[in-house]
Design brief:
- The protein is built from ten helices and no strands.
C-alpha cells in the first residue's frame, strides 16, 4: 500500500500542480494528526482506514470524496469540545474549495465527516456506509486489539477523572449497542458485528467494576 503521504499527495495533485500547496496541505495534516495528545486518533488511524479503502476501493463510486473524508475526518480533535466533527468537516470543505473542487463534492465530503458523529442511521449512500464502517472497524478486532484501542482512547481523555470518563464512555458505548446493527455494509457486518458487540459489552462490564486498566 502507498504511504499516507504519497496517497495524500496523489489525491491533491489531481486538483493542483502547485508543489508548495501540496506540501503545505500535507504538513498541516501531518502536524494535526501527530500531536502528542493523540494516542489513537493519529496517523496510524488514518493508515488503518486507508487499508480498508484500498481493500474495498473496487466497490466505491466517489473514491476521491471518500479519501478526502478519511484524511480530514479527525483533523480537528479536542477532547474538551463537542464539535470536532463539524470543525473537521469545515476545514475539509475549505481546503477542497481552495483546490477548486466542485461545491457539491465538497458539501458531500462535509456531510460524510459530520456523519461520523453518530454512526447511528442506515444510509442509502453505499460510499458513506463503507466510510463509516472503515472508521468503526476497530470495534470488531480481537479483544487484545480492542483493549489496545481503549487504552489509547483513555490516554486521550486523561484530563478527566475516572468517574467522569467511565460515565461518558459507558453512555457512548450503550448508544452504539442500541443500534440494530453497528456496521452499515454486509461485508463489515458479517466480519465484525458479532465481535464488536462482544467487545463493547465486555468493556462496559470492566467500566462498571474497578479494573487496573483504567485511570483513577
Amino acid at each position: 500500500m502507498q504511504t499516507i503521504e504519497k496517497c495524500f499527495i496523489n489525491l491533491i495533485s489531481k486538483h493542483t500542480d502547485n508543489d508548495a500547496i501540496m506540501q503545505m496541505f500535507w504538513l498541516e495534516l501531518k502536524e494535526k494528526y501527530s500531536s502528542k495528545s493523540r494516542h489513537y486518533h493519529n496517523l496510524s488511524h488514518i493508515a488503518e482506514l486507508l487499508h480498508f479503502f484500498f481493500e474495498f476501493e473496487h466497490l466505491l463510486v466517489k473514491k476521491d470524496i471518500v479519501l478526502f473524508a478519511i484524511f480530514y475526518h479527525d483533523i480537528v480533535y479536542d477532547v474538551k469540545k463537542k464539535n470536532n466533527e463539524e470543525k473537521s468537516a469545515e476545514l475539509a470543505k475549505l481546503r477542497m474549495k481552495e483546490l477548486n473542487i466542485q461545491a457539491n463534492d465538497a458539501n458531500l465530503c462535509y456531510n460524510y465527516i459530520v456523519a461520523t458523529k453518530s454512526h447511528e442511521t442506515m444510509f442509502a449512500d453505499p460510499d458513506l456506509a463503507y466510510f463509516l464502517d472503515f472508521d468503526l472497524a476497530i470495534l470488531g478486532k480481537d479483544w487484545i486489539g480492542y483493549s489496545e484501542y481503549t487504552e489509547k482512547v483513555r490516554k486521550e481523555y486523561s484530563i478527566y477523572p475516572n468517574v467522569l470518563y467511565k460515565k461518558g464512555r459507558k453512555k457512548a458505548l450503550n448508544n452504539i449497542l442500541e443500534n440494530d446493527r453497528i456496521y452499515k455494509t454486509e461485508d463489515f457486518f458479517r466480519k465484525f458485528e458479532k465481535q464488536a458487540r462482544k467487545n463493547i459489552k465486555k468493556e462496559i462490564d470492566e467500566l462498571s467494576n474497578y479494573s487496573g486498566r483504567w485511570f483513577r
